[in-house]
Amino acid sequence: MKRLLILASIVAAVALLAPPANAAGSQVFALTAQNGSGENGAVILTPLGDKTRVMVAIANAPTGAIQPVHFHVGPCATLNPKPMYPLKNVDDGISTTILNIPIDKLVGQGLAVNVHKSGAEIGVYTSCGNIGK
Predict the structure, then answer these.
(1) Most CB contacts within 10 A, which of 10, 16, 58, 60?
(2) Cα angle at 23 between 106 and 111, to 5 degrees?
């Protein structure tokens, strides 16, 4: 329960403090639970020049779960199952990756961030978010 409150606080704080999507700076996108997982959350993209920090925060992630997460060609409703950009696995609800890609090549390009149940159950999607403008 404590972990859930911490994750919820992080997601809420980032969402409140992040600049609007059209401003320079971090951009926040919602992740919506899929397949009855209850795993909602956020993707926070932060520009770092020609790189982007990608933070994924999942509320209600299973305790101790290691979940693959990737950028895919989207949107979530018709997701291409082949990953475009792999991210570090979600570990206990959090993933942070630095991609060697500028933020403008990620946002508004028809991509989605998709979280998978596990490496063994890669075809089971637990959360997805469209990375739009």
Answers:
(1) 58
(2) 15
